[in-house]
Every structure is written in C-alpha cells, then in structure tokens.
Design brief:
With 114 residues, this protein is α+β, with helices and mostly antiparallel strands. The protein is built from four helices and two strands, in the order αββααα.
C-alpha cells in the first residue's frame, strides 16, 4: 500500500494539512533518517532530544521524494509491480479524470464536480 496524492495532499517540509497548531515539526516530512550521536552497539533506538534537530534529521523526504527514494532502493520486481499497479500525482482536468476512471492504477473521488 502506498499513499496517493503526493505532496499536494500530504504536505511538504514546511506544512501538512493535519499539523497541530503551533507545532515545531510537520507531518509533511514523510521519511526521516536520524543520525544519532550514539552509534555504538548498545545505543538506544529512541533518539536523544539533542539529536532531533535539522542537523541530525537528514534527509527529510516529502511524499513525492519518499516514493522516488523507495523505488530506487527496492528490487526490480517491486519496481515493476509498483509501476503496473500504482500511479502518482493529482489531476483536476475533467477529461483526464474521466479517462483515469478506466485505469486500475488511478484513484479518483468518483463524481466529477463542476
């Protein structure tokens, strides 16, 4: 399963529609790879507060970037399965929406609003 809609729906590195008021981080950061200051074999999985800043949380990936990252870091079989079953993006053109209704890889809201 993969989230549809990309950054337009899920947000980006500065905002997301479901961010709480006065938050210091955004839910639009879909993937985050934390570099902790404790790399030893006994290190805790939970990051230390000093490790949760922009210096240590890199790269931060939005939904669009996370999709591309995932595809280049997965086996070719998964890439083929993904490309034959899923699509990305957001369309508002009526003719394209109607055409997408006949493609199993596309998801639309059903009724086209005018």
């Amino acid at each position: 399963m993969w989230m549809k809609g990309g950054d337009r729906i899920w947000g980006n590195l500065t905002w997301a529609a479901d961010d709480p008021a006065n938050c210091t981080d955004t839910l639009g950061r879909f993937f985050s790879f934390r570099q902790t200051s404790d790399p030893g074999p006994n290190s805790s999985q939970k990051p230390k507060p000093e490790d949760l800043d922009a210096k240590h949380i890199q790269p931060n990936l939005t939904m669009n970037e996370a999709g591309a990252y995932t595809l280049i870091h997965t086996p070719q079989e998964f890439q083929k399965m993904y490309n034959s079953n899923y699509s990305n993006g957001f369309v508002v053109d009526t003719a394209t929406l109607k055409a997408n209704g006949r493609d199993h890889r596309k998801v639309s809201g059903g009724k086209i609003l005018r």
